[in-house]
Design brief:
Layout lengths: L8 H9 L7 H12 L3 E5 L6 H15 L10 E4 L3 H15 L6 E4 L5 H9 L4 E4 L1 H10 L4 H5 L4 E4 L9 H17 L4 E6 L5 H8 L7 E4 L8 E10 L8 E3 L2 E3 L5 H14 L3 E5 L3 H18 L5 E4 L5 H12 L5 E5 L14 E5 L5 H8 L10 E10 L7 H4 L2 H14 L13 H15 L4 H8 L10 H12 L6 E3 L5 E3 L1 H8 L12 E5 L5 E6 L9 E4 L2 E9 L4 E6 L17 H12 L9 H16 L7 E4 L2 E4 L5 H13 L5 E3 L2 E5 L3 H13 L5 H5 L15 H12 L6 H9 L8
Parallel strand pairs: 1-6, 1-7, 2-4, 2-5, 3-4, 5-6, 8-15, 11-13, 11-14, 12-13, 14-15, 18-22
Antiparallel strand pairs: 9-10, 16-17, 18-19, 20-21, 21-22, 23-24, 24-26, 25-26
Amino acid sequence: MTAFDTLNEKVRRWIWQQGWEGLRDVQERSIPILLAGDRDLVIMAATAGGKTEAAFLPIVSKLAGDQPAAGDGFQAVYVSPMRALINDQFGRMESLCAELDVEVTKWHGDVSESVKARARKNPSGIVLITPESLEALLVRRGKEIRRLFRGLRYVVIDEMHVFLDDPRGKQLQSVLHRIDLAAGARPVRVGLSATLADEQAARVFLRPLEPSRVVVLPPGPGGPPIKLQLRGYVRATSFKQGRQAQGGDDVVATVDPADVAIARHLFETHRGHRSLIFAGARGAVETITVRLSEMGEAAGVPEEFFAHHGNLSREHREHAERRMKDRSRPASIVCTTTLELGIDVGEIEAVAQLGPGHTVSGMRQRLGRSGRRPGHAAVMRVYVKEAELTDTAHPLDALRVQTVQAIAMLNLMLRKWNEPPEPKRLHLSTMLHQVIALVGQRGGITAAEAWDVLIRSGSFGGVDAGLFKRLLRRMGDPEVGLLEQAADGTLLPGPAGERLLESRDIFAVFISPEEYKVIAEGGRAVGQVPGENPFTPGEMLMLAGRRWRIVEVDAARRELSVRPARGGNPPLFGGDMRSPSDGVVQEMRRMWEDLPIPAYLDATAKQHLVEARTMYDRLGLRDVSVARYDGQLLLFPWIGERSQQALVLALVQAELEPVPLGVAVGVSADKEAALVATLSGLASGPPPEAMALAALVENKEIEKFDSFLGDELLTLAWARDRIDSDGLPALAAGLLASFAPPEC
């Protein structure tokens, strides 16, 4: 008997109606496990690899074959990180369940209250919901949870990699456990993902206390052929982005010829086809979409290019999605990461990406959006701009960092490598949120009960009893006002807790990253920088083509006061000032040294790689980790973000005014003696205390509820979550070896 034969007859009929020639490998393997209903399951398959059906063909078969008694509540929950993905899956689920008497309900912030009220009155079948809407149910309808979910048998978490070791993931783990407790149920949990780097981390996320009970189905063999191209472009040295004040006069920016050339190639390649163009920042999305639309108007062709990002209205985004699904007309969407996940926008012929992107897993998600049609390849083109080289070019420009990073990430993607999850984080902001949400759900709870629900369940396993007590005391501080304690020990909402529980802020733990305004002397605005970067007085940053020293950090107003700093020409590469992950950095180094030149590079990108290797050898980076340029020492520690953050803060602590430069860290050559002394001290002693380093960071309030934690707990969280100082002695010794010994 095949897996197909074990499915409900009506499910088999639905499969025939779809015209399928057979089940996919991942579906064949998942069906018997989920029909048995006694093991949790992680299903790993490429984007559009049939993961959703692998979960719901057997689930719907079980639900249709074992009809529940009236009032048993929802039997299956599908959790998605995005409303749009729920909307997309709702249509597919309705089609599957139409003839099986299995109710399907979508539930998120855009669904009308009347639909939700009907579902609460007669809960049954499958509900498709976000973590935030589950939280809203628990907080607002705590007394109804048992009735709503007492018949729950399956929980399916889509795009599970998005949740791993993330605030929303911690919230989801806790919410699912709270539902289990309230409903008296233990449903089978199913995780779906195309890009999981660590099977054990996936098991622990899905079932924290019993990971051994989780079965992982790795991706099967096969998949579409892949066509890649990395295209190189040269940015003009005279080009200045935006408007800058120079000598009291505004200078209007000219258009970078490289941007025009990229837009022209995008237009010529994607016009008349169906594609996704990932442009990075929202401003870039708008700029490129306007440029492509203007090219279409000049050519006299219908509108084909549409913008899609989080700042646009839901109506605008959904119009773009509907337009893409209209197979009668070609269309392309220019987007941020909004379409990186599995929202159905029809069959995509090709994907384009501007710049190297942020993660290898994200790059794989994007590539997987194309190549879904039988017999067609998955197509991706990556466009990278580099600075025009001159005799005085900065070494980082000559090292072609953006190009080498893009190559490294593409190589790792082809080897099916993903960024591993970060070490276990504390997630104090999310845990604080869960304490107050739990108090709201139950109307009050003892500290011991909160410990059992939140910590003993494994959702926040990195927190010990002492730290949990410190958090509760902080929440109960009259100046904070989140909690009060009754005479019998019951924790109740304080004034601030009441306000939070009455607001919609209690439902979500994520916030959009804020930007800090950079203000120079005299109050002149220089620009903005991402707020998730750590800032410390005395640290250097680069903006608007200049070096600046941070004088003051005003976290409340989200402002940095800066003054001009001495130094030579900064690099023009415009990349992220933070180091990529350790795996990407190591692959970049191998690319500079000896890996073969990939066949997917165009002529310009090949030339950029040759130039990069020439500069790498000219700087002697095969043998040393320090280079000199224009009054600057460039340290190449060859480490990822958390370790480099520890190094930068140790240099800040020594008043060396370091400049983070991605794969490098800059220090003024005037401070060489002090730098050598600092490195010697680091190399010969124990690792510096992470708490002392974290205390230097002024803008530690990054996550949504950080403002309630206070400096002591925030510093502890930063030290654990964002800094890795253990390797600093060995790292310092390696850097120290690149300096010549003093003359006798």
